[in-house]
Amino acid sequence: MRPFAYEQAGDSSAALRMTANRGASAQYLAGGTNLLDLMKIGVAKPVALVDIGPLRADHASISVDADGLHLGALVRMAEAAEHPDVLRDYPVIAQSLQLAASQQLRNMATLGGNVLQRTRCNYFRDPSWHACNKRDPGTGCAAMDGVNRRLAVLGTSAHCIAHYPGDFANALAALGAEVTLLSPEGTTRRILFEELHRLPGDTPHQETNLHPGELILGFHVPAGPWTRRSLYLKIRDRESYDFAQASAAVALAVVDGTIQQARIGLGGVATKPWRSHAAEAVLQGQRLDEALAHAAAEAAFRDAVTHGENAFKPELGRRTLMRALLQAATMEIQPNA
Amino acid sequence: MPDGKLFGQPAIRIDGRAKVTGRARYPSDEVVANPAWAFLVTSAIARGRIRGFDLQEARAVPGLLDILTHDNVGGEAEKPQPMSGGSTTPTLESDQICHDGQIIGIVVAESFEAAREAAHKVRVDYEVQQASASFDSPGAEEEVREAGEHKDYQVGDAEAAFAAAEVTIDARYGTPTQHHNAIELFTTTCEWRDGKLTVYEPSQFVYGLRGSLAKQLRMEPGDIHVVSRFVGGAFGSKGGITARTAWIAIAARRLNRPVKLVPTRDQGFTIATYRAETRHHIQLGATPDGKLTSFRHEGWEVTSRPSQYNVSGTETTARIYACPNILTKVNLVHADRNTPGFMRAPPDTPYMFPLESAMDELAAALNMDPIELRRINDTQTDPATGKPYSSRCLMRCYDEGAARFGWQRRDARPGTMRDGEWLVGWGCATAAYPANIGPAAARVTLSPEGRARVQIAAHDIGTGAYTVVAITAADRLGLELGQVVVEMGDTDLPAAGLAAGSSHTAGISHAVAKACEGIRARLAEAAVLSNDGPMAGLDPASLVLSAGMLRGPAGQSEEIQKALGRAASGVLEVYAENLPKGVPPDAMGKIYQGQMAMSRGHGREDAITYAFGAQFVEVRVHARTREVRVPRAVGAFASGTIVNPLTAHSQYMGGMIWGIGAALHEATEIDPREARYVNDNIAEYLIPVNSDVRSIEVIMVPEEDSQVNPLGIKGIGEVGIVGMNAAIANAVWHATGRRVRELPIRMEHLL
Ligand SMILES: Cc1cc2nc3c(=O)[nH]c(=O)nc-3n(C[C@H](O)[C@H](O)[C@H](O)COP(=O)(O)OP(=O)(O)OC[C@H]3O[C@@H](n4cnc5c(N)ncnc54)[C@H](O)[C@@H]3O)c2cc1C
Ligand code: SF4
């Protein structure tokens, strides 16, 4: 047990203040399902936890309007997964949450915490392993030539091949969502969700572009003619309660059989929530068939790099994307309002 | 065959209510006064030695009481004696490190939290040596397993017959490392009083734990009391003593205060045993009409450096099918690993996978239905020894299972049974497990209220053993289940053997039945001698106990309380020991001393005794992404007398569910360079969840066998898992045309 301070923030400005006072290694505590886990196994060592649970009062709403879908950072996974408007207009978002973790975890975990969950690389999650650049910069990477079946093939570097394990974030990335951030100075900024996470490069320990102490307030998913024809396909070793070996978030705007616009996200295969602009470009303006889906899948994994055990992942990823595309094309939907 | 009315009737567990209401005391729930808490320090390397410890930071943790290392306690205990395989790796006896996660220190503090914190602050200076992880690792040492605990079979000339065979299968298979991961962790609580030690620890053999611990601590067994009333899952992992127990006893002695240890989930991967990875080479030769002419099976098994532990499942595979030429061989591969041990159907689960896969391959090569191939090669005589099977209903299992499963609708050609995007495959395989039985003793006490108390140091590892004992006693004494109280899991009680090898129900029910027969005989003798009673002058052997009465052959009857009054002034108590056929005369004494003594299904002079089953599985493999799911499975089993069909159903079903996990999910991953377990937690060590388990049907094929033992009980705890690996692999082949010979079968094998 490492001693740490615990404070509860009544609102967002209190949260910012408390975190600023505690310095660099203070952390926000939302559902705690990832952070407390990492503290128990000795990977996360915050000196202080600022509990942002009470921020639910201001940042836990779900709304759909002409502008798109607005999700507060403190919305629980289960709430968004089961929300009728989300289910109807943004099925890819609902499914990415439904298929994640377990019901118990979804009842606790928040959307803000979800997107910031950390890799499941086993070497990262056990400090008795010496070499892990993400946990201890400069120590090397035990996974590169070790047990790495689950690890990434897209966006990797010579320093880290850890996968981003979450699901919801891939749907956000695909749909071009934005995230609203509140800085310690009290100013808000909005950035493209795709820019929230960083590639590992030679600094795999720096996972996001958040400024120290910055708070996620919520997400905005822009409306578009593709959101209703959307789905999240997750392929895993067991039927439930398992992270993705590969997943695909797809959304298609189809008019008279021609894809006007495509939005594609990939999970389980990349180092960060992944949007495949390359695959989208292949689909744009074309009629979907097996060959086109294949071409899109090829494009999505053109730059894949494998390491031993995970050599199967580009092929699995391609097939997952193809299956998702072909399934989305046959969805029966009400046209967007 | 028992004639009683309770045998074979479904009965809910007599301890069920206590378990679901939390009143059942598992060993770590037992109340001890003012315990100190222990936390293990385990090695972060797999091979080397400890140059020294830096304990300064750890000692500074408030509440710290003691730190045990080889420096201060190394000489105080011997290594434990494993149930099988001879020697094992050390812990605190020396500075040597022989596997990942070896216990190298024990921190004791006022609270669990303080002990854990201090344990994390122990700094170890290691001298690291290159470790060998497994097969093929540099430095791993291979040797042929000599005959000893297990032996090989050579009948005819298998090599020549294989060379001459018209149809052959020649293939290699592999199974992975697996860990039991019972929900209950490997806890130990020790308390000393006046030089005597009480140990609360989940165990499948309390007398065995006591016997080994006495040797390790150089004590008299009688000065040690082991209590294990409930066990939260064991599957073999709590069969033999592990090193932790002696050190916790020493920690408690040093502090003169009870010490409680609850290790972590990941420590459970390295401080106890596991199922080691295996490899196999199988050669089958057959005639074009499917008769086997040659069977060769060579196995390789990983074990620790000092241990000879091996499971040698060739002792089962050599005798499944009629074949005139048989040759088996087993090799050990020593690596820098903890010592493996029993895990549900230890020999049969890994070894039947290759045999039953190869039989399926042979059926395909012969263009023959896989069930017909088994029928052609079915036998009532063990081909390895020429002895008869006491009973063997394998083909009845196939026939009943096939009918329920709908096997006749199977299109034999692989890849043809499609349902939309899903490839459908049907597979089957034989399950077999030896009918073992051990000696046991029991004490039965009949009270003036007409209630019975049964005492036996047996073990309910979640199987329903308490209920089996109650059923047996109630059945024999003519009482209701609710009139029987059962005490188990305690070395103050009459001894029973290891609850393993599917032997426990057979072993303990015979002992209980014998003690009950003693009660009946005493009541009957008193009744026939008593001039004023209704049974005066009758033959005592003709009297029976039923429905609360002692009854004579012509309908005479008397309440059991009344009959008791004639036989005893207060209570009537009978102690009985049962020595089953096939164990040496001193076997009961051995059990009391904590040694294993068991009559094995393939070790008897008069007959070979086995339970058999036929298992059927439907798999679905997604045509594109290739994930494998199991929508339904049917298992038909013939295991002699079923004492309690309700808990028997759970055992069979549990075995089949575990089989789904074994074939598709479970594998302990080992870092190849450092010989360390990587996925040592149940978030990453996958087992089936509810949605992986759809329809599981169990058929109990009636079977009477008075030769196996008087009550005709064969044991059911393990046979349910045995055929699942191959049935699933065979179904995957049928769905996809891909033959996967390495478990677990995963999407990457099928892409
Ligand atoms: C066994 C298991 C299986 C799982 N399976 C899946 C799965 O299949 N798919 C999947 O997607 N996820 C899965 N998860 C992960 C789970 O979804 C996450 O743990 C959860 O979403 C995290 O949310 P939380 O609110 O509990 O976050 P916390 O644990 O409270 O926080 C996580 C991190 O985010 C930070 N944080 C939280 N909120 C904010 C905020 N508003 N602003 C800034 N920083 C913030 C915290 O400081 C912390 O660093 C699984 C988890 C477990 C334990
Ligand atoms: S892949 Fe990344 S997280 Fe895993 S061991 Fe290497 S550096 Fe650490």
UniProtKB/TrEMBL annotation, chain A:
Flavoprotein keyword on record: yes
SUPFAM superfamilies assigned to the protein according to its UniProt record, in alphabetical order: CO dehydrogenase flavoprotein C-terminal domain-like, FAD-binding/transporter-associated domain-like
SMART domains assigned: CO_deh_flav_C
Superkingdom to which the source organism belongs: Bacteria
InterPro entries on file: CO_DH_flav_C (IPR005107), CO_DH_flav_C_dom_sf (IPR036683), Diverse_Substr_Oxidored (IPR051312), FAD-bd_PCMH (IPR016166), FAD-bd_PCMH-like_sf (IPR036318), FAD-bd_PCMH_sub1 (IPR016167), FAD-bd_PCMH_sub2 (IPR016169), Mopterin_DH_FAD-bd (IPR002346)
Short name of any one Pfam family annotated for the protein: CO_deh_flav_C
FAD-binding PCMH-type domain sequence ranges: 1-226
Keywords: FAD, Flavoprotein
Protein name: Xanthine dehydrogenase family protein subunit M
Organism this protein belongs to: Teichococcus aerophilus
Taxonomic lineage: Bacteria, Pseudomonadati, Pseudomonadota, Alphaproteobacteria, Acetobacterales
Automatic annotation (TrEMBL), chain B:
A Pfam entry, by short name: Ald_Xan_dh_C
InterPro entries assigned to the protein according to its UniProt record, in alphabetical order: Ald_Oxase/Xan_DH_a/b, Ald_Oxase/Xan_DH_a/b_sf, Ald_Oxase/xanthine_DH-like, AldOxase/xan_DH_MoCoBD1, AldOxase/xan_DH_MoCoBD2, AldOxase/xan_DH_Mopterin-bd_sf
SUPFAM superfamilies hit by this protein: CO dehydrogenase molybdoprotein N-domain-like, Molybdenum cofactor-binding domain
Domain Aldehyde oxidase/xanthine dehydrogenase a/b hammerhead: 21-130
Annotated keywords: Molybdenum, Oxidoreductase
PANTHER family registered for this protein in UniProt: ALDEHYDE OXIDASE 1-RELATED, XANTHINE DEHYDROGENASE
Protein name: Xanthine dehydrogenase family protein molybdopterin-binding subunit
The organism of origin for this protein: Teichococcus aerophilus
